[in-house]
């Protein structure tokens, strides 16, 4: 029986050999170059040197293909759980290593998806479930450990705090046009996240 992968409620056959990875890699490149709105199955087929029929046998929609691609992309890996012993160290490691905010590919992919995420329900759902969820799980562990270590005060809204760093970096990158450098990340951590984590304990 051929290998299959779940797509919605149906089972769709995988592309044989290493061709599936090649198609997904090509999709990530096209998303970064053209954006989601301008991406077409034809463009991916051309970039991957594959037939459009091959793409549709495996992925029934553009949203399925794109989310599958960015979820498995070599340049956008799900970060390993980090435990440096401090909230500051964990956030620096998570944000500044491969797949973090200073990596070109994840930010290019995000730029290519932003205009479509708020109005394409299928893309938004798949993006949250397959791309964001595993990354948020790592972030949540970091903040849960910080709470146990006593680095975050009892009166702090931890859910809101955990969203603050990515929100500020994404705002700088895509609204203000400011490159997410390590220096910017350190400024946000030291002047926003850590003081906020102390809550009413802050002097």
Write the layout of secondary structure elements.
Elements: E1 4-7, E2 10-13, H1 19-34, H2 41-48, H3 52-58, H4 62-72, H5 87-96, H6 104-117, H7 121-149, H8 158-176, H9 182-197
Antiparallel strand pairs: 1-2
Helix pairs in contact: 1-2, 1-4, 1-6, 2-3, 4-7, 5-7, 5-9, 8-9
Task: Describe, in plain words, how this protein is organized in 3D.
This protein is mainly alpha-helical and 203 residues long. The protein has two domains: 4-72, Tetracycline Repressor, domain 2 (Orthogonal Bundle); 87-201, Tetracycline Repressor, domain 2 (Orthogonal Bundle). Helix content is 64%, strand content 4%. It is built from nine helices and two strands. The protein has helices at 19-34, 41-48, 52-58, 62-72, 87-96, 104-117, 121-149, 158-176, 182-197, and strands at residues 4-7, 10-13. A two-stranded antiparallel sheet has the order 1-2. A hairpin with a 2-residue loop joins β1 and β2 (10-13). α1 packs across α2, α1 packs across α4 and α5 (87-96) runs antiparallel to α9 (182-197). The longest helix is centred in the middle third of the chain and has 29 residues, at 121-149. It starts with a strand and ends in a 6-residue tail after the last helix. Keywords: DNA-binding, Transcription, Transcription regulation. This is TetR family transcriptional regulator. It comes from Kribbella voronezhensis. Pfam families: TetR_C_11, TetR_N. InterPro entries: DNA-bd_HTH_TetR-type_CS, Homeodomain-like_sf, HTH-type_TetR-like_transc_reg, HTH_TetR, Tet_transcr_reg_TetR-rel_C_sf, TetR_C.
